[in-house]
């Protein structure tokens, strides 16, 4: 192949751009899909995006916790009422109460098995909203944990 001069010039510009932090970030986000945002129906800006690989205070990372193929509810504040809601989906969602090195202002995040955020909250959790997100992505609550 013999690239034209214009192709070589464009290649040089892209190479220079990739060597900058902003340029490298731009291309990495597009290649790895990090910049994608699916419309998953949530109001939080993180919903529909790839979940950050939080470094948890318990010593693990979010990515490690997703390897079992289940959904994951990460509760940064160990909120008992949020844990009770998550227990209703205990066969399909792993509940983890742990702070993180940089929680990005979040108090809780529900992550699908594919690593995309299904629900996130940075204020006091709306338990009904959390339950609706769990039902939407993980089906109805486990029969043993149905509310009376």
3D structure, described in words:
- It is elongated, with a radius of gyration of 20 Å.
- The longest helix has 14 residues.
- It has 148 residues and is α+β, with helices and mostly antiparallel strands.
- The model has no long low-confidence stretch (mean pLDDT 87).
- The chain folds into 2 domains: 35 residues, no CATH class; 109 residues, Glutaredoxin.
- The chain is built from 5 helices and 4 strands, in the order αααβαβββα.
- Helix content is 34%, strand content 13%.
Question: Short description, anyone?
Answer:
With 148 residues, the protein is α+β, with helices and mostly antiparallel strands. The chain has helices at 5-18, 21-32, 62-65, 80-87, 127-138; strands spanning 71-75, 93-97, 108-111, 117-121.
Tell me about the biggest sheet? 4 strands, mixed
What percentage of the residues does DSSP assign to strands (E)? 5-15%
Count of discrete alpha- or pi-helical segments spanning 4 or more residues: 5
Helix content: 25-40%
What low-confidence regions span 5 or more consecutive residues with pLDDT below 50? none
List keywords for this structure.
single chain; 148 residues; alpha+beta; Glutaredoxin; four-stranded mixed beta sheet; 5 helices; 34% helix; elongated
How do the helices and strands line up, and which of them pair or pack?
Blueprint: H1 5-18, H2 21-32, H3 62-65, E1 71-75, H4 80-87, E2 93-97, E3 108-111, E4 117-121, H5 127-138
Parallel strand pairs: 1-2
Antiparallel strand pairs: 1-3, 3-4
Helix pairs in contact: 4-5
């Amino acid at each position: 192949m013999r690239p034209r001069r214009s192709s070589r010039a464009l290649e040089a510009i892209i190479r220079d751009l990739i060597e900058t932090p902003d340029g490298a970030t731009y291309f990495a986000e597009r290649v790895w899909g990090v910049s994608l945002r699916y419309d998953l129906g949530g109001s939080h800006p993180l919903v529909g995006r790839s979940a950050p690989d939080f470094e948890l205070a318990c010593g693990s990372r979010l990515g490690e916790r997703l390897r079992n193929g289940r959904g994951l509810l990460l509760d940064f504040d160990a909120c008992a009422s949020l844990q009770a809601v998550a227990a209703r989906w205990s066969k399909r969602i792993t509940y983890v109460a742990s702070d993180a090195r940089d929680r990005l202002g979040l108090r809780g995040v529900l992550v699908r098995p594919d690593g995309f955020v299904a629900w996130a909250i940075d204020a006091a959790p709306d338990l009904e909203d959390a339950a609706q997100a769990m039902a939407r992505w993980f089906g109805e609550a486990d029969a043993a944990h149905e509310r009376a």
